[in-house]
């Protein structure tokens, strides 16, 4: 009987050592709550734009991304070929909750919407103009009467005398 008791005690102490060893590696992180995340809807007109948040996640519109709730506002950048890029600021609204409602985090605006404007095509480059050569002046018709001596212009009263 002493043998059975000794074996039982040895087995119990072995189990205790294993279980205590397991407890030493136990982490208290399981009691910490994960940071809240916010689901943000991203839309653009026209659709199909690449949208990326300043927090990292992004997608092609229309879509939704899940971002960790930041303490400060963030931005969403929209880009689409042949359109001007756009950036939309997003505010974080934290509701602490009370005894009857749980705490919540939302964004304003939600959905985040961007109206993308077509890119203005660059103006065509004009070639430099060469100055035009002056046209030769046609010879003046011969006057009926000779011009006054020393005057390069004909006499305006020449035909009236």
Stretches where pLDDT is under 50 for at least 5 consecutive residues are 14-22
Fraction in helix: 10-25%
Strand runs, count: 8
Report strand order across the widest sheet. Answer: 3-2-5-6-7
Plain-language structure description:
The chain is α+β, with helices and mostly antiparallel strands. The chain has one helix and eight strands, in the order αββββββββ. It has one helix at residues 2-24, and strands at 37-45, 50-53, 58-60, 63-68, 74-79, 86-95, 104-108, 112-115. Strand 2 (50-53) and strand 3 form a beta hairpin.
Task: Give a nutshell description of this structure.
The protein is α+β, with helices and mostly antiparallel strands.
How do the strands and helices of this protein lay out in sequence?
Layout: H1 2-24, E1 37-45, E2 50-53, E3 58-60, E4 63-68, E5 74-79, E6 86-95, E7 104-108, E8 112-115
Parallel strand pairs: 1-8
Antiparallel strand pairs: 1-4, 2-3, 2-5, 5-6, 6-7
């Amino acid at each position: 009987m002493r043998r059975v008791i000794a074996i039982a005690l040895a087995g119990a102490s072995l189990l205790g050592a294993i279980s205590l060893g397991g407890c030493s590696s136990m982490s208290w992180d399981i009691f910490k709550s994960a940071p809240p995340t916010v689901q943000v809807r991203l839309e653009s007109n026209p659709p199909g734009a690449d949208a990326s948040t300043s927090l990292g996640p992004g997608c092609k519109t229309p879509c939704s991304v899940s971002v960790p709730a930041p303490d400060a506002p963030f931005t969403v950048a929209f880009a689409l070929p042949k359109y001007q890029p756009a950036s939309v600021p997003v505010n974080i609204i934290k509701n602490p909750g009370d005894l009857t409602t749980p705490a919540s985090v939302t964004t304003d605006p939600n959905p985040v919407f961007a109206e993308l404007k077509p890119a203005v095509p660059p103006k065509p480059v004009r070639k430099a103009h060469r100055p035009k050569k002056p046209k030769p002046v046609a010879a003046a018709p011969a006057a009926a009467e000779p011009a006054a001596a020393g005057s390069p212009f004909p006499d305006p009263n020449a035909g009236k005398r």
